[in-house]
Design a protein that fits this description.
Blueprint: E1 9-11, E2 17-19, H1 29-33, E3 40-41, E4 48-49, H2 55-58, H3 65-69, H4 86-93, E5 96-97, E6 111-112
Antiparallel strand pairs: 1-2, 3-4, 5-6
């Protein structure tokens, strides 16, 4: 994120946005700038954090924990551009939206069948 004075926020090759806790100085600029309200300051580490999609699991070929344990199967994770994946099939048969599309942030999180505006 460009507002970070020390460059602690970065994007992995597969598109996951992460915060390097070794570099983060806890200035909160990224928390204020995040249009989704997805970042927070860890109460004891005093560094910015956000959902990592369980990146440590992704690098091992596993799904994020929330996807794996969701009792209703409401969460789907995978490559958007591959029609043969569960996510690719799901996206073909459901109306998909992103949060705050007017911001043109190129989000990688999609929501199925949202009714109304999510704030």
């Amino acid at each position: 994120m460009q507002v970070c004075p020390v460059g602690a926020t970065f994007t992995t090759q597969d598109g996951v946005v992460l915060v390097d806790e070794d570099y983060c100085i806890g200035c909160r600029y990224c928390i204020q700038a995040c249009p989704y309200g997805a970042r927070f300051l860890h109460p004891t580490k005093r560094v910015a954090q956000k959902c990592t999609f369980c990146y440590h699991r992704l690098t091992q070929g596993l799904l994020p924990a929330c996807v794996e344990v969701c009792p209703t199967g409401a969460r789907v994770f995978g490559e958007v551009n591959r029609r043969s994946t569960p996510l690719g099939r799901f996206m073909r048969f459901n109306e998909m939206q992103v949060l705050k599309p007017h911001l043109n942030t190129r989000p990688k999180v999609f929501y199925a069948n949202l009714d109304g505006e999510v704030r």
